[in-house]
Amino acid sequence: MTAAQAQKEIIALTEKINYHNTLYYQQNRTEISDYEFDQLLEKLIQLEKEYPQFKQQDSPTQRVGGTITKEFETVYHKYPMLSLSNTYSEEELADFDKRVAKGLEGEPYEYFCELKFDGVSISLTYENGVLARGVTRGDGVRGDNVTNNVKTIRNVPLRITGKNIPPAFEVRGEIFLPKNVFNQLNKEREDIGEERYANARNTAAGTVKMQDSTEVAKRKLDCYVYSLLGDTGSSSHAQSIQMLESWNFNVSQTYKKCKNINEVFEYIRHWETKRLELPLETDGVVIKVNSLEQQERLGFTAKSPRFAIAYKYKAQSISTRLNGVTYQVGRTGAVTPVAELQPVFLAGTTVKRASLHNANEIERLQLHIGDYVFVEKGGEIIPKVTGVDHEKRKSNTTQPITYIDKCPECGTKLIRYEGEAAHYCPNITGCAPQIKGRIEHFIQRKAMDIDSLGERTIDQLYKLDLVKSPADLYDLKREDILKLEGFKDKSVTNLLGGIEQSKNTPFESVLFAIGIRYVGRTVAEKLARYFRNIDKLANASYEELVQAPEVGEKIAQSVFEFFRNPENQREIQRLRKAGLKFESDLKEPEKESDILANKSFVISGVFERYEREDLQDLILKNGGRILSGVSGKLDYLLAGDNMGPSKREKAEKLGVTIISEADFEKMLKGQ
């Protein structure tokens, strides 16, 4: 393929993929399968790698991330992002309406109502129809440039097509984590033994500020836009919204134009419970004067506009009887207390159970069986108990609830690690929920992806003593599976085929599947790339583990202890014998020169222009060696920002040469 042909193909693929992205994310329809779409995207990625000079500004490959941002540039807002005044009552809204009427001196006016989304405010600037900047609200005057992360959000247009597009304009919106994505994220964290995220809004805010846009892309952020600024020719907010819709921006279809304050009240009452059906969290309604000219006349106070106000819904809380507390045991052995409640209707659903989180929470609430407790339903799957209704506590209420000291499933004495709130059952090989949980983790899509298995089948296999660990799956025979309820010849063949196919799963997925505590999919990928095979990883010291990307002290300690457990060692050997991959398929970087020959390096800290993996590849490509720890045999400590002081002290004590990123680049140039 010639350069000219490549350029033409890149332009055509970019347009085609962007077209299908718009259909899917803005119009909720498709014309091609996911597989066909992925093939188009993969082809474009490959062409852009070969011919980077032809990559388009609106290339859809930016959606998958890949950019590292060490520090976010501070950007001053052209139009300040002011906060709104809040109210919780219709009386105060009526007062707001009177102030608007007075400010407009009796002139007719109307309102535009929108739901207030619980996310992260973002300013999107477009120049010549192309997304130029995405900036956080910050302090309202200036925010952080997070453009690379914003580009990963599928329904934020990278290029605008349509009529009457101004040379430059700004769009305001709200970035959020959809409820289902947030719940799945928490499920995954729970699965690897991490604490759940508290709420979707804070998680979205943290995601927007991640340094690695590839990780941002994996979080599947979403965005609703609600405001258009600049010389656009529109005379009302409603007209601006129509323009945004015509340019294929993602506008929530929950807005309404209201003739007067009474219609505003109707809108508020309508959405008070209906909003709970939406895919994201909402906490109120934004009411704006519709006319842009009238908005300008009403003006601003020092902190907020006079033409708009936010009505906040009160958190829905209800009192119901606490009938008891049960305890759930997870895959990692964490024991979670759950309040068993008198069923009550709350926020659109009947609530029978609510999270009590841990022993500290039970002690804080001073719970008694028979108490009436307040229950709220926020952004979590399970509602939570927030307090005790002391006015309803009866004198004959039973004794305070004390957290159990033995596992509710196997009777083993519980332990509590220093610095952790949860209690754990240490009986990892004999506690049924832990065993079944590990197998369920092992077969999931992001791990071994054995889709012919499920919780019900695993439960049957466990009860028949056929499977007590993941390695047992690879010993199953046809006659074993025929014992399971609902399994005939075809379903048996499918299951055995799925198990056999899983042997082709790459090492990083296998490493995630074996279920080391705190090792999620991303950390497993980093460890697989860094150590290359299971033996080097298993034999690594704690100090060597801490050197690996994304690995902190907690993860390093967990990995170190996992591979020194005899039971885990036996399980790894059985999985190895079954034919699973325990070596990375990632190719060693092709050699470019011998300029670093016979030189050894340790890489530590954060760098301005490179990821640590990139530096590692450069060293290997140019003949150098990577060591995992500082010793007298080391030639160079390549030091970035935030490097641990102990490493520097040790290097200085041993006389090891410490070099910067700039020094390293000079070495590569032979200087």
How widely separated are the two ends?
38 Å
CATH H-level homologous superfamily name of the largest domain: DNA ligase/mRNA capping enzyme
- Put simply, the count of helices is 24
β-strand amount:
15-25%
Counting helices, strands and paired strands, the structural category is alpha+beta
Mean pLDDT: 89
- Helix amount, in percent? 25-40%
DSSP strand count:
21
CATH fold group of the largest domain: D-amino Acid Aminotransferase, Chain A, domain 1
CATH architecture of the largest domain: 2-Layer Sandwich
The CATH class of the largest domain:
Alpha Beta
Please give the domain count. Answer: 6
User: Describe the biggest sheet?
Assistant: 6 strands, antiparallel
Poorly predicted runs are: none
Could you tell me the radius of gyration in angstroms? 29 Å
Overall shape: it is globular
Write the layout of secondary structure elements.
Layout (H helix, E strand, L loop, with lengths): L2 H24 L7 H17 L23 E3 L9 E2 L2 H14 L7 E7 L2 E8 L2 E7 L5 E3 L2 H4 L17 E9 L2 H13 L8 H9 L4 H6 L3 E8 L7 H10 L9 E3 L2 H14 L7 E8 L2 H7 L9 E5 L4 E13 L4 E13 L2 E7 L3 H7 L6 E5 L7 E5 L34 E2 L7 H12 L11 H9 L14 H4 L7 H13 L5 H7 L7 H11 L2 H5 L3 H6 L5 H10 L3 H13 L21 E5 L7 H10 L3 E2 L9 E4 L5 H10 L2 E3 L1 H8 L3
Parallel strand pairs: 2-11, 18-19, 18-20, 20-21
Antiparallel strand pairs: 1-6, 3-9, 3-10, 4-5, 4-7, 7-8, 10-11, 12-13, 12-15, 13-14, 13-17, 15-16
EC number: 6.5.1.2
Keywords: DNA damage, DNA repair, DNA replication, Ligase, Magnesium, Manganese, Metal-binding, NAD, Zinc
GO biological process, one term: DNA replication
